[in-house]
Amino acid sequence: MSEKARPIRIAIFSNQEAPACQVVSLPFSLEGYPPVELEIFQGVASLSPAEVRQALKERQPEGFDIILDGEQLALDLAPEPVVSGPRARMLEGLLCQLQEFRQKQEINTGIINSATDAIVTINEDHIIIGYNKGAEKILGYTREEALGQNLKLIIPPPHKDVHQEYVRRYVATRQPHVIGKHVRLTAQRRDRTEFPMSISFSVAEVRGNLYFTGIIRDITETKEMEDRLLQSERLAAVGNTVTHIAHEIKNPLLIIGGFARQLIKATELDDKARQKLAIIAEEVARLEGMVAEMRDFVRPPVSQKTLGHLEPLLTEVLEFFQENFKEHHIQVRLQEDGSLPPVSFDANQIRQVLINLFKNAVEAMPRGGELTVATRVKGPNVEVSVIDTGEGMPPEVAANIFTPYFTTKEKGTGLGLAICNFIVKEQHGGRIEVESTPGKGSTFTIQLPAVEASAD
Ligand code: ADP
Ligand code: MG
């Protein structure tokens, strides 16, 4: 049907108090048919046949295609195409429901389409049957290009066939592996570039057919931040190793050099031996210089404190973690007990502390949980608590967590809390403490000295 097709005009005579149709969003159309326009005439019972005719003419001079006359008020309107009695009421009901249904559908489609995430639905055969605007933007294919294609279109080569196999397996076994979870994968844009995405899957069964929907978010930025963080933790690890080695080497070198210089002065040595000792002393001095230089190189930077409020920093770091929390099914609560007085702090360093605490909390709640960040004034200090409902730790672990390299994780560095400790205690003159119950959760509390208002 061409779009210009003349609409089908239907008049509905209704004598009920309530409007015949709840939703009046005219016209609507069914696929393959011209649009339908409903005209609803209410309270026609009090009109004479001539007045009814007049009302009809006023609204639609060219006449209606069908008149639904459930109340039998327009019987003498023939030869107009009148359907009357119960049949008219049934048709009226059908049309009204259809109209409401179409409107709901339009609203839903509107929501899906305006979402910023990509929403892609496939059927059991791995064919794309739903594709929103967000998907066009994130993936680069237009709706027309994507619909009807195999989902392989957007999956990069190593996973192309694996994914279809997953779907096949789910259809056969109904064993959910990833359904209902957030997973990190790589997707491929139209221009063949790949990007990291976080995707959550859901499945719906409609009349025995399964439909899989993926909500895809581009996490390029989050990923970059995380990589930078890891990088800085690695650098810190290297730095600490160097400091450690330098410390171990320094004392033996001191002894070797000291003895060598003593021996040079001994009278019973011949010149050759004395020359060799001089070389030893010289080389030791060179090594000492190198060690000192190395230590200077990795020495932690002096903190750059400014007077300010902690709240914006807390909000910023929480926001940064938002995606991460969501992915791990962690509910976040910020509990502020009034506004905090200003604190003198190095934002970069305290950011690092918060990041380390949040990261540990996430790692302690592999099956999700709750993370509460509570702030309050405690005596002369500002206190921030990071409370998780994770696995907690026994006392023998809690006693060691601030020691560099102490970790209970397979891939842990054991440096996170050591760095926190250094920053809070050494650099800010504050305190960091832990309270933990195995199986219940942990609370990390940091205190920073508040600055009295008169000081600024
Ligand atoms: P890493 O995270 O690399 O192991 P950290 O210094 O950050 O190093 O933490 C040291 C150890 O402290 C961890 O391995 C873990 O055993 C324990 N830990 C830290 N935070 C928590 C927490 N929120 N819940 C339970 N245990 C924790
Ligand atoms: Mg850690």
What does this structure look like?
This protein is of the alpha/beta class and about 450 residues long. It has four domains: about 110 residues, no CATH class; about 100 residues, Beta-Lactamase (2-Layer Sandwich), CATH 3.30.450.20; about 80 residues, Helix Hairpins (Orthogonal Bundle), CATH 1.10.287; about 150 residues, 2-Layer Sandwich (Heat Shock Protein 90), CATH 3.30.565.10. The chain contains eleven helices and 16 strands. Strands 6-5-9-8-7 form a five-stranded antiparallel β-sheet. Strands 11-13-14-16-15 form a five-stranded mixed β-sheet. Strand 5 and strand 6 form a beta hairpin. Helix 6 runs antiparallel to helix 7, helix 8 packs parallel to helix 9 and helix 9 runs antiparallel to helix 11. The chain is elongated, with a radius of gyration of 37 Å. The mean pLDDT is about 85. Bound molecules: adenosine-5'-diphosphate and magnesium ion.
Please tag this protein with its features.
456 residues; alpha/beta; Helix Hairpins; five-stranded antiparallel β-sheet; five-stranded mixed β-sheet; 11 helices; 16 strands; binds magnesium ion
List the helices and strands and how they pair.
Blueprint: E1 8-14, E2 36-42, H1 49-59, E3 66-69, E4 82-84, H2 86-114, E5 118-123, E6 128-131, H3 133-139, H4 143-146, H5 160-173, E7 182-188, E8 194-206, E9 209-218, H6 220-264, H7 271-298, E10 306-308, H8 311-327, E11 330-336, E12 343-345, H9 347-364, E13 369-378, E14 381-388, H10 395-398, H11 416-427, E15 431-437, E16 441-449
Parallel strand pairs: 1-2, 1-3, 3-4, 11-13
Antiparallel strand pairs: 5-6, 5-9, 7-8, 8-9, 10-12, 13-14, 14-16, 15-16
The structure holds adenosine-5'-diphosphate and magnesium ion (MG).
